Structure formats: C-alpha cells, structure tokens
Amino acid sequence: MIIVDTGAFLALFNQRDTYHAQAQIAFNNVSEPLISTYPVVTETCYMLTQFASDTASFNFLKCSNLQ
C-alpha cells in the first residue's frame, strides 16, 4: 500500500507541472493500492483550482473513488 500526498496528485493532474510526465509514468507503473486522506483530497482540489483549473480539480475528484 502506498500513501499519496498532495504533491504527487498536483503533478499528475496539472499538465503544466514540471513533474507531470514523471508522475504519469510513476502512477501508470504502480501495482500496489494507493491511499490518501480527506485533508489531502481537500488540499489537492484547492491547489488544482488555484494553479491549474476547475477542470483539473473535477478530473481529480472523478478519479479519486472516495469511499
């Protein structure tokens, strides 16, 4: 199980992020389950809206499978 923090999500969902391509590769190669916390989800949505777009924030939530 891998714990994911805001920085990784920002790189993955913000196409202008310096580490976007590396994040895509890393997330595509992970075979273990990923977990995070609600505060990370909240912070990621806020930062994506501020630094990328509302669409990036929406796409993050759509992919997050909150349970």
Describe this structure in words.
With 67 residues, the protein is mostly helical. The protein has one domain. 64% of the residues lie in helices and 6% in strands. It has four helices and two strands, in the order E-H-H-E-H-H. The protein has helices spanning 6-13, 20-29, 38-51, 54-64; strands at residues 2-3, 34-35. Strands 1-2 form a two-stranded parallel ribbon. The mean pLDDT is 94.
Write the layout of secondary structure elements.
Elements: E1 2-3, H1 6-13, H2 20-29, E2 34-35, H3 38-51, H4 54-64
Parallel strand pairs: 1-2
**Total domain count:** 1
Uncertain regions: pLDDT < 50 for 5+ in a row? Answer: none
Trace the largest sheet across and list its strands: 1-2
- Kindly estimate the percentage of residues that lie in beta strands according to DSSP: 5-15%
Order of helices and strands: EHHEHH
Q: Give the total of beta strands.
A: 2
Q: Specify the number of helices.
A: 4
Helix content: 55-70%
How many angstroms separate the termini? 16 Å
| Average pLDDT over all residues | 94
The rounded Rg comes to: 11 Å
Shape type: globular
Major beta sheet, specifics? Answer: 2 strands, parallel
What class, by secondary structure content? Answer: mainly alpha
